[in-house]
Amino acid sequence: MRQSRHYRRKYFMTWSIIARDSSGAFGIAIASRFFAVGALCPHARSGVGALSTQALVNPLYAAPALAGLAKGIDPERIISQLTAGDEGRDHRQIHLIDASGKAAAYTGAACIDWCGHTLGSRFSVAGNMLAGPQVLAATAAAYETNPALPFAERLIAALVAGEAAGGDKRGKQAAALLTYTTEDYCALDLRVDDHPEPIAELQRLYQKSLERYQPFSACLPSRKHPAGITDRALIEAEIERFQARQGGAGT
Length: 251
Description:
Elements: E1 2-6, E2 14-20, E3 26-32, H1 37-40, E4 42-45, E5 49-55, H2 62-70, H3 75-84, E6 92-98, E7 103-107, E8 115-120, E9 123-128, H4 134-144, H5 151-164, E10 174-180, E11 188-192, H6 198-209, H7 213-217, H8 232-245
Antiparallel strand pairs: 1-8, 2-3, 2-9, 3-10, 4-5, 5-6, 6-7, 8-9, 10-11
């Protein structure tokens, strides 16, 4: 792993993990003291890549970053191009990952401490205004040591570990989970915009999604099946089979 650090004042925190699963899916899990962090920070596209722009967030990074990843441009070069043209770059933080699982990250010199990033195998963790470097270390370790978990659960488990390592000591308000698998639309887009325990609430929403949302989504039109499943009886049967595979999680 490679780690970058900057030491300044400590206030509230934002940290995220972006990853490419062995299945080819992309995901971002993020937590912050900032309201509705899932609205502006995480972005992804199936078969292309994922990124999170944070600190003094620049949402205008997302479109050119994903366009560059779609063209096969190296993630480090994309970051260099984005930050070179941004007069506010010292206050930005961005990390992104491409279709091969290569990640790159940037933490501006004026980001508030503790801030930095860690690059792993097919994932990246970055944060600013954190309780300390242990937040990123614990997030990365939890992701690496839970490869058997479903991808979304693995990302959430990484956030839980980061919070347990001290992330919540500086405040908490919002969390989000965004995943893309094979379609132009997302597989999951869960947001907790304002909650006293946002990561716990994110876990609850994920469990709720197992009841009907995830199995129903599998019946939607897709690249492989452009019409999807339109017979309601078949949809209900798919939901029941999904729930049975989950060991009754949706009942």
